[in-house]
Write a structure and sequence with these properties.
Blueprint: H1 8-23, H2 36-48, H3 54-69, H4 71-92
Helix pairs in contact: 1-2, 2-3
Amino acid sequence: MRSGRPTEEQLRHNFEAALAAALQGQGVRSSTGLDSPTQDALWAIARARPEAREDMVDAARRSFAGQLDGSNAARWREELERTIAERRSSSEGK
């Protein structure tokens, strides 16, 4: 059993393995350490097989780059903060 977060090297290996599997129409394992946007992009490839297009692969690579550089997590935090603010605003208006 692995403890802690995977290293960048492990994430890169896991992404390439998951991409290869998706291109074969296989699902994405949940224990890869890949974030939701990256997994969603890989699932789109798996579901599209055998018609997976290069732009889908490019989108998966961009999503993975966003995981590595932190932009996926930053976008998630912004969306969460916006949702919380909207709910507070609507509950204060009641």
